[in-house]
Amino acid sequence: MMDFKTLAGDRYATKKYDPSKKISNELVAQLKEILRLSPSSINSQPWRFTFVSDQKLKEELAPFSFHNASKLKDASHIVVFSVIDNLEKFESENIASLPEGAIAYYNNNIKPGSEEQIKAWMAHQVYLALGFFLSGAASLGIDSTPMEGVNAAEYDRVLGLKDHKTLFAVALGYRDPDDFNQPSLKPKSRIDIDKVIYSI
Ligand SMILES: Cc1cc2nc3c(=O)[nH]c(=O)nc-3n(C[C@H](O)[C@H](O)[C@H](O)COP(=O)(O)O)c2cc1C
């Protein structure tokens, strides 16, 4: 298995997928389990992940995906990451079943905030699952694209989400061999290490 630093250098935001290549059921099952295992603050897990493989449904979402429309059409799967939008449900279903210490942390440090602050805290957990997921997909040899460029309200409508709100989506599949964005054709661009990492 490839070491993690090599994976980090090799994964990239895929811009063009090979529409003829689909992810096997076995790997899809592994991707689902990786998402389920994502860490979150106090193990609050305020999320829902919707896997879309049906071509018609992907094409229905494409017009609400801005510059990402072709990824919706060509990628094997789209995973829509949504956050719980019903605080009452979140507290009774997610928080109430946690260990006492976690509940106390929530009641003392999160719950007193405004609704907007609580929802921002929940969304942070979903973004964390994104980072975890992109690495997990790469470890299975699957290409991916995180996509904030989606119309969240339209995604909610098309997917019929009620107590959850779309935050972003991830396209998954296998790259078109000519995808210009792959690291072998376009070297990774990052800020110099001594500008972002400090050792004291
Ligand atoms: C939260 C998030 C949202 C993003 N949204 C999009 C998007 O809508 N479309 C797209 O092509 N790339 C999107 N990207 C990809 C970034 O542009 C990309 O990760 C960044 O430029 C670094 O390049 P690399 O991932 O290829 O290393 C997004 C990345 C993140 C983390």
UniProtKB/TrEMBL annotation:
The keyword Oxidoreductase applies. Transmembrane segments: none annotated. Pfam families: Nitroreductase. InterPro entries: NfsB-like, Nitroreductase, Nitroreductase-like. The keyword Thylakoid does not apply. GO terms for molecular function: oxidoreductase activity. Keywords: NADP, Oxidoreductase. It comes from the Bacteria. Residues 10-174 form the Nitroreductase domain. Belongs to the nitroreductase family. This is Nitroreductase/dihydropteridine reductase. It comes from Mangrovibacterium diazotrophicum. The lineage of its organism: Bacteria, Pseudomonadati, Bacteroidota, Bacteroidia, Marinilabiliales.
